[in-house]
Amino acid sequence: LLFPCRTQAEMAHTCRGTINLSTAHIDTEDSCNIVLSNGGRTYHLKANSEVERQRWVTALELAKAKAIRMRNNQSDDSGDEEPASQSDKSELHGTLKTLSSKLEDLSTCNDLIAKHGAALQRSLSELENLKLPAESGEKIKAVNERATLFRITSNAMINACRDFLDLAETHSRKWQRALQYEREQRIRLEETIEQLAKQHNSLERACRGAPGLSSGSTGIASTAKGSAQSAKGEASDEDEETEYFDAMEDAPAFITVTADPKHHRRSGSNLSGASEGHPEDWNLEDSVFESSNQSGYNESTCKDLLPKKRRRTRIPDKPNYSLNLWSIMKNCIGKELSKIPMPVNFNEPLSMLQRLTEDLEYHELLDKAVKCESSTEQMCFVAAFSVSSYSTTVHRTAKPFNPLLGETYELDRLEEFGFRSLCEQVSHHPPAAAHHVYSKRGWTLWQEITIASKFRGKYLSIMPLGAIHLEFHSSGNHYVWRKVTSTVHNIIVGKLWIDQSGEIEIVNHKSKDKCQLKFTPYSYFSRDVPRKVTGVVSDADGKAHYVMSGTWDEKMECSKIVQSSHGSTSTEGKQKTVYQTLSPKVLWKKYPLPENAENMYFFSDLALTLNEPEERVAPTDSRLRPDQRLMESGRWDEANVEKQRLEEKQRAVRRRREAEAVEALEEGKDYEGYIPLWFERKVDAVTGELICVYKGGYWEAKDKQDWSACPDIF
């Protein structure tokens, strides 16, 4: 966007990507390219021909000359306009009247100070004329000098106040105009956002109401063309050093075309070498798959999930504490980097172990997967479950508490939902947590997750390391996958927002079925739906059976493939695969957030219950962590003190353990270091990695209430 006719004040408030021509540098690279730069921004423009390039250069140079003339003619003191409204005018005059009144009070005080100061000096002069000892005369002279300095300082203060009032009167109208401009900009922005929201809703309705396309080259071409009309996602702040080039459309890996099962026919001419499926297998009354147009999906799910025990539905509202950076810096002076306490202002009142347990919010997907007779159908539910674990992160920008070494967290829902979960912090450097879930409905899940993070200036990349294992008891199907990278944007300046990007490969090590899921990263230039997830489920021979599509913050759908063929080759040499599918079915849909969630850290219904106090849990359970409990209660200052105490206690234990290791080394003995209480390290038979697996004993200890083996960490 080039705006040569805007004033300097307007240039400071233009939309993102605007460049000021009055200070821009215009250059040419070759016969068709133009380079336009201004400070940290650089635009590369390409014309169709050399003649067109020259016309653009001429127009830009004329616009630049006009912008320079306007800038030179603009007066900085052009704020002689009256305030926009009578209320603003009254407010301004009231402020000036108050300032004048205060100045009069100061002038009166100045007169009194001068009067009494003169009297004081006369009295001191009279004392000097009296016949007093030499020592007394010196003291009186010193007091006289101090009185003179006091009077000079008072006069200087009054003069400074008068100068301030003059300055306020001079610039008041300019300030008022800037304020009015900001108000108008805010109103315009609100109207624009409202318009965009309406357009987005209408586009969504139009897309959902689009009729299915038949197979053939015409349908494929129109589908490919129509898919390019997706709405843009929300914008993010950009780096000032960004260079802008012509947008390139990346060819999709595959294209899907919806077919009608009743009218589905094979077309050999257009689908040579195609793999076929049977539409009659895609039964709408299937006991496992449920159609996206069946309204009873959420109702039946909610009925199955009704808890027998009443759980809490809210926590205390998050206090509105401002983050005082100076207080943090003040606490850091003279301390080692490892000992700098991070305040709870950056946290949410849950530990990392509880966040890990939160992945089980949509556990009913695995209960449904147990009922699947086909391994590829089962893979679809496993894929939907792997995506559902990210749905709670879209608004959750606060970090969870780092668990203490030996800290545990249990979630016993065996009677309500058929599963029980246990987490333990098994390592502190690097931080690692082991997780084990058993369900009496026919599945077991276990994982060991280590978090690696990289700070890259404007954003923070969080990379979970470690494999997630899922095994179904009856079929013996063993699935393994890994998490994608989470990115927290605007770490330094701006509103925090989270994105998920990367690929997940889910492998069934028994049947060799695979599912490749791609989490598309957000891009301002992309025409894809934000937070998009796509994937294909294929068998051991590489034949595709299902197409997965959706978003990681809303829902996932599954479409059965009836025919597939190789489409045209893109300009980049990539060959597109065209999948003709039946109508999609919703496998997973996000539950709505509870009422007042924005004031409760955007917790879901499950997250609200995770830190609810429970009896008979281990003394190392996260629910008993005092700093986390104080933060949840809104007592953040006390929570900061308690958090610092716990961290220092953990450091003392680590120093003692290091001293024991040194002593054992000197004596020639082996030192095992910290040994997890409920987990043990073993080589995984599937992946060949060393992983912490549950060794048993926790639930038996809970039944007996024998926690003598638990360390004192709180």
Automatic annotation (TrEMBL):
Segments carrying the region annotation (Disordered) are 70-92, 207-242, 259-309
Domain PH: where?
1-65
Q: What gene is behind this protein?
A: Osbp2
Gene Ontology CC annotations of this record: cytosol; perinuclear endoplasmic reticulum; plasma membrane
Entry similarity comment: Belongs to the OSBP family.
- Coiled-coil regions listed: 179-206
Mind listing the UniProt keywords for this protein, alphabetically? Coiled coil, Lipid transport, Lipid-binding, Membrane, Phosphoprotein, Transport
List the membrane topology term(s): Peripheral membrane protein
Q: InterPro entries per the record?
A: OSBP_sf, Oxysterol-bd, Oxysterol-bd_CS, PH-like_dom_sf, PH_domain
* Protein name, per record: Oxysterol-binding protein
- GO MF, any single term: cholesterol binding
Recorded hits in PANTHER family, A to Z, give: OXYSTEROL-BINDING PROTEIN 2, OXYSTEROL-BINDING PROTEIN-RELATED
Q: Where does the record say this protein resides?
A: Membrane
Which superkingdom does the taxonomy of this entry point to? Answer: Eukaryota
Q: Does the keyword Transport apply?
A: yes
Q: Name one GO biological process term.
A: lipid transport
Composition bias, Polar residues:
214-230, 289-300
- The principal localisation class reads membrane
